[in-house]
Design goal:
202 residues, alpha+beta, Double Stranded RNA Binding Domain
Length: 202
């Protein structure tokens, strides 16, 4: 759980980032819930990331995503739990998956929290005599945010969703801060959303 002061600072920074989301590509969003039978009543939340590496716990990237999620949860009526979240009504767990989608269609993982890639991008040597002045098509960064909201008391999941975005490598939308803001905003738009349906959010 990110400290309250750090989270507050990042939430403020996130407000600035949200102003730029109009420049980003659309987001594919899928949600699952049973709110039509058991309505989701907002309450206090503790936000925790699922870490592949414990060294990522204090990374700026994860803190940015936690802040973006908190901002959107507060917008729809949830509150941030105090005292390290140990007494929150809900636990919000999330996972970030990033990969490089090459122009040729191959996919390789990207290290979260570092900003570089792991794996090979591939290479090739042209054999034609023509010169392509347009340059090599840029690879894309695919970022997926998966979130699950569960009752702390019994562990029952009340809502889960995932959002993904593809952005050209090196573009603003491929940067973790802007991607976090856009993904979180799209994921919780019209909460809880239509269950089991994938939509595209501009």
């Amino acid at each position: 759980m990110v400290g309250f002061r750090s989270m507050t600072t990042l939430v403020s920074a996130g407000l600035l980032l949200s102003a730029c989301t109009a420049m980003t590509p659309p987001v594919d969003v899928t949600r699952f819930h049973n709110a039509q039978v058991a309505p989701i009543v907002p309450g206090s939340v503790a936000i925790n990331a699922n870490f592949a590496d414990e060294g990522d716990r204090d990374s700026i990237e994860y803190m940015t995503y936690s802040a973006a999620l908190l901002r959107e949860l507060q917008r729809i009526g949830f509150t941030e739990a105090r005292d390290n979240g140990g007494n929150s009504e809900y636990i919000v767990r999330y996972t970030i998956d990033r990969a490089v989608l090459s122009a040729a269609g191959s996919r390789s993982p990207v290290s979260v929290g570092v900003g570089g890639s792991t794996g090979s991008y591939g290479s090739g040597v042209g054999v034609g005599i023509g010169i392509n002045l347009s340059g090599r098509p840029k690879d894309k960064i695919v970022t997926e945010l998966s979130v699950r909201i569960a009752h702390r008391a019994n562990g029952n999941v009340v809502w889960e969703g995932r959002a993904s975005i593809e952005a050209k490598q090196g573009s603003p939308a491929a940067q973790p801060g802007l991607a976090a803001s856009k993904l979180a905003e799209a994921l919780f738009r019209d909460f809880p959303g239509v269950s089991g349906t994938t939509i595209r959010v501009p």
